[in-house]
């Protein structure tokens, strides 16, 4: 018997057609992708180093500059999800042994602290906003991380003033806007954010898998004057800046094969945001969120973030109603309404149900659908506890 003969047969599932349900994705992401963006992602593949692709990447850069409100030249999209942008930011600006200060308001701060720890940096967590000034002075971090839209808690963290504080202590400000970009006001340059990233699959409504990121001159100075190479080859900004035509060199060399379809879809989702206008998009998310919050309260539900001004308009957290098993409520809505909401994440697991109405999904008619599904689930799911 030859060693090259096939011993593993084709799997039976592969001989069946692909099945994908049509669902309302009203959780914290991914959100539903509008037909125009899906169609863009379905256009023919071209080479990642063809000149037409460079033009599309240039458009994406401009689209991100608008969405982030930045003039930063060092703006691009990561080949990877939001985590790729998180790691890219930390890997490139921090060297082993340097310290990073992380504001932990939910799971994302915890993740960044872990990324910093894995690459051998000292990290300090700071849960309390009032401690921040002392913590900056005490630990002399090179980077301070804050999540703008903390999707695990449903919190929109204020940003104003923090950039000035970081400059005073010669520290870079890194902000995560994966869950908030396009939904809540954020102005990278004016708010003195040194590094900002987001994801494709939330209010931008592109498929998951690409992540816009931008570095200002302070961040570029730090990352391009380091003594050691970043731990990741794939996320090394010396290479990525060349791939995105940002390093001033005449040619772009092969570094990795970018997700061509993902970039086409991202370009289209950024175009939709540019057509709609950021201010309109922010206003629209706020209005629909307020409509949803009122509807939830009318159902007798409690919102997890009490202060309206601190609530994230894109992802609302509902305190799990007394007596109910949250998993049963979610399963009921998927089964009977084809509608996804999710439970908590990290520290908020077992505390909240999360509803996200983002971008294309953000409408009062979708809020009504979410409210009807929840109300139905509350009627039909048993109360397990007194
Ligand atoms: N940051 C925030 C605030 C998020 O909500 C998410 C995704 N839920 C991420 C980062 C990570 O993004 P991804 O799942 O695309 O890696």
TrEMBL record:
Its lineage reads: Eukaryota, Metazoa, Chordata, Craniata, Vertebrata
According to the UniProt record, list the residues that bear N6-(pyridoxal phosphate)lysine. Answer: 202
Keyword Transferase appears in the UniProt entry: yes
Q: What is its EC number?
A: 2.6.1.44, 2.6.1.51
Task: Name its co-factor(s).
Answer: pyridoxal 5'-phosphate
An example GO biological process term is: glycine biosynthetic process, by transamination of glyoxylate
Q: What is this protein called?
A: Alanine--glyoxylate aminotransferase
Annotated substrate binding sites: 354
Q: Which family does it belong to?
A: Belongs to the class-V pyridoxal-phosphate-dependent aminotransferase family.
The reaction(s) this protein catalyses: L-serine + pyruvate = 3-hydroxypyruvate + L-alanine; glyoxylate + L-alanine = glycine + pyruvate
Among the GO molecular function terms of this UniProt record, one is:
L-serine-pyruvate transaminase activity
Q: Does the keyword Transcription apply?
A: no
What does the UniProt keyword field contain? Aminotransferase, Pyridoxal phosphate, Signal, Transferase
Q: What class of enzyme is it?
A: transferase
Q: What is the native source organism of this protein?
A: Pygocentrus nattereri (Red-bellied piranha)
Q: Which SUPFAM superfamilies match?
A: PLP-dependent transferases
On subunit structure and binding partners, the annotation says: Homodimer.
């Amino acid at each position: 018997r030859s060693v090259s003969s096939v011993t593993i047969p084709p799997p039976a599932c592969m001989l069946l057609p692909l099945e994908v349900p049509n669902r309302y994705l009203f959780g914290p992401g991914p959100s539903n992708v509008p037909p125009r963006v899906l169609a863009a992602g379905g256009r023919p593949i071209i080479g990642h180093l063809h000149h037409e692709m460079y033009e599309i990447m240039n458009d994406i850069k401009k689209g991100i500059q608008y969405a982030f409100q930045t003039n930063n030249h060092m703006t691009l999209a990561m080949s990877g999800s939001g985590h790729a942008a998180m790691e890219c930011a930390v890997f490139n600006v921090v060297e082993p042994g340097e310290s990073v200060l992380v504001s932990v308001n939910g799971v994302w701060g915890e993740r960044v602290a872990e990324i910093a720890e894995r690459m051998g940096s000292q990290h300090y967590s700071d849960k309390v906003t009032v401690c921040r000034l002392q913590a900056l002075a005490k630990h002399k971090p090179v980077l301070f991380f804050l999540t703008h839209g903390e999707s695990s808690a449903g919190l929109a963290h204020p940003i104003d003033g923090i950039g000035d504080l970081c400059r005073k202590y010669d520290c870079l400000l890194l902000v995560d806007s994966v869950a908030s970009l396009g939904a809540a006001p954020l102005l990278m340059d004016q708010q003195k954010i040194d590094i900002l990233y987001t994801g494709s699959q939330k209010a931008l409504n592109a498929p998951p898998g690409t992540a816009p990121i931008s570095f200002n001159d302070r961040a570029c100075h730090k990352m391009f004057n380091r003594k050691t190479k970043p731990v990741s080859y794939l996320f090394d900004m010396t290479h990525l800046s060349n791939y995105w035509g940002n390093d001033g060199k005449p040619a772009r060399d092969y570094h990795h094969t970018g997700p061509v379809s993902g970039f086409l879809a991202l370009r289209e989702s950024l175009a939709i945001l540019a057509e709609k206008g950021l201010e309109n998009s922010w206003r629209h998310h706020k209005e629909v969120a307020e409509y949803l919050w009122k509807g939830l309260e009318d159902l007798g539900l409690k919102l997890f973030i009490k202060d309206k001004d601190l609530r994230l308009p894109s992802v609302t957290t509902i305190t799990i109603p007394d007596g109910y098993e949250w998993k049963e409520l979610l399963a009921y809505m998927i089964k009977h309404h084809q509608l996804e909401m999710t439970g908590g994440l990290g520290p908020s697991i077992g505390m909240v149900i999360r509803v996200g109405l983002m971008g294309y999904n953000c409408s009062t008619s979708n809020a009504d659908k979410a409210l009807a599904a929840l109300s139905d689930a509350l009627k039909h799911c048993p109360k397990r506890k007194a």
